[in-house]
Specification:
Length: 774
């Protein structure tokens, strides 16, 4: 069962956002009064302040209107304070970039970006939310607002955490803490250390989690924040529960509940009741457990807390399952799963899927059990959380064992043991005791220095007594060591007699270690190469800034890929390319680096804009770089590519391809953008050296809702269990179905279609497809 993990991540950030000096203003006036003031306000500074207050007073449906007004007003004033030269903005001589007036309007522009981001985040539009948070961070950097910079970093970390991108969440949160420590913002330090504890706990690093929880607790006590103290106390109780210390667990949960009740925090009370309810379940006190969980559910329903509601439903489902009410358990599990899918809670989805799968396992419906538990394992591996991987592996091991599939059962058992040991290791438990004792000692020292002095005197007396005991123990140890030495000499003599027969065994074991070490080095090197390769790919935010409605379906066959995509925007032109290099894996990855560098040279450095000329220049660059004039065994290395140049001013699409077509969709009709029947690099079709190669180019008029599709051949060539290729016709049917305005929905459709086609057949090639609404 999933014991509810107190995730104060969003709760903390919501609470803390009200403390940000540069973004939150007084809300004492009512909405109608503010509107009246706005109508008569004569100065833009006053209008900015009123609009800022209105954004927080009006209903959610009207919020966006006033945010846009605030953004436009701030931008207009900043433009008025600047002079536009050749597309760049320079501030007039009588207005310094750090002048109070410029800083005022930049602060309000950053505030508008924050409001935009919060609006999109509440609507689960994480791509646009991240985009506006990054814009806000840039504004804060320009006006040297460290407090605001730390705030935006925290918000981005929150989104990455909810999306399962734990590494980005950790990086941004650490950067936020660094700034808060630099400016000595106690509230920020307390909140950031608590969130870092949550992140490290999800990663299975309890030692780090305890370190940050204790830092948060001490800082919260220093500033007297009862809600913050309750958060840290609850999180510490959860770790004690994980380690089997039930008395500490309920003690800390009860302390947390009292603190939340004293501070009037409904959300905190709900969290504490959930933890206590699970505790009573483990104590087999079902009535008390149901009482706590139903109270918790009632609070969360009143607050429309979807994440919390899903957790309560999940826990209630488990309790009903334990009581034999299978139908009610499944009902609660599925309701919980539906909410988690709706809000994108991948961590929570793994637990609900495991529970549903295990019910089917107990009913001996093994195909259904494997279906749900395998989904849980897939999501768990994407998240990289040891606890969720452990749970899924344990369930799959039991299912495969019951089916007699010993190979898969063993694989999952090994994975379960690895994850279990990484979570429940002795070092973590020692760290828990060490950190708790250290905190209690520090707290006592701060509370009563006189008592501490007396304690030190007493310690000296105890030290003297201990010294005498140590001398006696030293003599006993000497006698023991002498006896052990004699035994050891006898064992060495015995060992020598058998040494010859053991040499061969040791040699084999040593060779195995060397092989394992070599394999690990190779895998580590390839994983690092993946990071390098990913660094050359354009970010989703970079493309979203020009084409908000786009998605990228990128699925390498191996760790590194032979496919890559490339994007560049200059003036009114956008360049986008999709390429399939010779081979896949490491050889293909090397070619992607060479080809990407070639595109940078031809387009960015040489300023080429005609796609057919760009491809010809790229061929010459690859031909010379790989010395293909030698005509040796490597002369055929190269790539197939589709290149589109979008002219935003004239609404034209210029296209050229090398052995790789593109597709343009207008009013539900697909037009194939024909590529030249030759590749970039390599010899010609007759095997002759061809240093210069020409490609044809075409130009198309774009309509309002034109859609561009660029793809490599990995999808077309994928086989299904009947050895059929997916083919071009099915691909065209697929791209016509990618018509949602929600990029995540389109991506999910593409992934599901591909997976449903290949089923258990291995992926044969790298997969890459980009859809852009022009």
């Amino acid at each position: 069962m999933r014991v509810f993990r107190f995730n104060f991540y969003k709760f903390n950030l919501l609470l803390f956002s009200f403390l940000q000096i540069n973004y939150i203003y007084s809300q004492n006036s009512k909405t109608d009064s503010l509107l009246a003031e706005l109508n008569v306000a004569k100065h833009d500074t006053t209008r900015c302040n009123i609009l800022n207050d209105l954004c927080r007073k009006v209903s959610n449906s009207e919020t966006i209107k006033y945010i846009k007004q605030l953004e436009k007003l701030a931008e207009t004033n900043l433009k008025a304070l600047s002079t536009n030269k050749n597309g760049s903005v320079e501030f007039k001589s009588n207005n310094s970039i750090n002048s109070p007036r410029i800083k005022f309007f930049k602060t309000h522009l950053g505030n508008a970006y924050n409001l935009f981001a919060s609006y999109y985040e509440s609507d689960d539009d994480f791509i646009n939310a991240l985009l506006f948070y990054k814009k806000g961070l840039k504004i804060c950097s320009e006006i040297d607002d460290k407090n605001g910079s730390a705030y935006f970093l925290k918000k981005m970390a929150s989104i990455y955490f909810d999306q399962g991108n734990i590494n980005n969440a950790l990086d941004y949160q650490l950067e936020s803490l660094k700034i808060y420590e630099e400016i000595d913002n106690k509230e920020g330090i307390a909140n950031s250390t608590n969130v870092l504890g949550i992140i490290y706990n999800n990663l299975g690093n309890e030692q780090k989690a305890l370190e940050y929880y204790n830092k948060s607790l001490k800082t919260q006590e220093l500033i007297g924040n009862k809600i913050g103290i309750g958060e840290a106390v609850y999180n510490l109780g959860h770790i004690y529960g994980d380690q089997g210390d039930e008395s500490k667990e309920i003690e800390y949960y009860t302390k947390a509940l009292k603190l939340f009740e004293e501070s009037g925090s409904k959300s905190g009370i709900a969290f504490a009741l959930s933890g206590i309810g699970i505790y009573y379940f483990h104590q087999k006190n079902i009535p008390k457990s149901l009482e706590c969980l139903n109270k918790c559910l009632q609070i969360r329903l009143e607050r429309n807390d979807k994440r919390g509601i899903s957790e309560c439903l999940n826990n209630l489902g488990f309790i009903y399952n334990s009581q034999g009410d299978i139908q009610k358990a499944l009902e609660f599990y599925h309701k919980s799963l539906n909410i988690k899918e709706e809000i994108g809670d991948k961590d929570g989805m793994t637990y609900a899927l495991n529970h549903i799968g295990f019910i089917y396992f107990e009913r001996k419906n093994y195909p259904k059990a494997i279906e749900y538990c395998s989904k849980s394992m897939k999501i768990s591996k994407e998240l990289g959380f040891p606890a969720t991987i452990r749970n899924a592996a344990e369930k799959l091991n039991q299912i495969y064992s019951a089916m007699g599939d010993h190979k898969n059962a063993l694989l999952n058992y090994k994975l379960f043991i690895t994850m279990r040991d990484s979570i429940n290791n002795i070092a973590n438990k020692k760290a828990s005791i060490k950190n708790q004792l250290k905190y209690e000692y520090d707290k006592k020292a701060l509370a009563d220095s006189l008592q501490l002095a007396e304690t030190k005197k007493l310690s000296k007396a105890q030290l003297a007594e201990s010294t005498a005991k140590l001398k006696q123990e030293k003599t006993q140890r000497f006698a023991l060591i002498t006896g052990l030495t004699l035994v050891l000499i006898f064992l060495i003599y015995t060992f020598i007699r058998f040494r010859h027969s053991q040499k061969q065994k040791k040699r084999i074991e040593h060779q195995k270690i060397l092989v394992d070490q070599s394999q690990k080095k190779i895998v580590d090197s390839i994983n690092y190469a993946k990071k390098i390769q990913n660094s050359i790919l354009p970010s989703g935010d970079e493309i979203s800034a020009i084409f908000p409605k786009h998605f990228i379906f990128f699925k390498p066959k191996d760790i590194v890929s032979g496919d890559f995509y490339w994007f560049y925007h200059r003036d009114h032109l956008s360049f986008i390319a999709v390429a399939d290099c010779t081979g896949h894996g490491v050889p293909g990855a090397f070619m992607t680096m060479i080809a990407s560098a070639g595109l940078n040279e031809v387009i960015i450095e040489q300023n080429s804009i005609q796609p057919e000329i760009i491809l010809s220049s790229l061929h010459s660059t690859i031909f010379k770089g790989l010395q293909q004039q030698k005509g040796d065994e490597y002369s055929q290395d190269g790539l197939d590519i589709s290149l589109a140049v979008i002219d935003h001013k004239s609404h034209l699409l210029h296209f050229s391809g090398a052995h790789n077509h593109g597709f343009l969709i207008d009013n539900g009709e697909i037009r194939t953008l024909k590529a030249s029947p030759k590749s970039i690099g390599g010899l010609n079709i007759l095997g002759e050296i061809e240093p210069n190669r020409k490609f044809k180019g075409e130009t198309y008029q774009l309509n309002k809702d034109s859609i561009l599709i660029l793809s490599t051949d990995g999808i077309y060539d994928q086989l299904n269990p009947s050895d059929e290729k997916f083919g071009l016709q099915r691909f065209k049917e697929l791209i016509l179905r990618l018509n949602s305005d929600d990029n995540l929905v389109n991506l999910k459709t593409a992934e599901q279609t591909f997976n449903n086609w290949k089923q258990e057949v291995p992926q044969l090639d790298d997969i890459l497809m980009i859809k852009i609404k022009l």
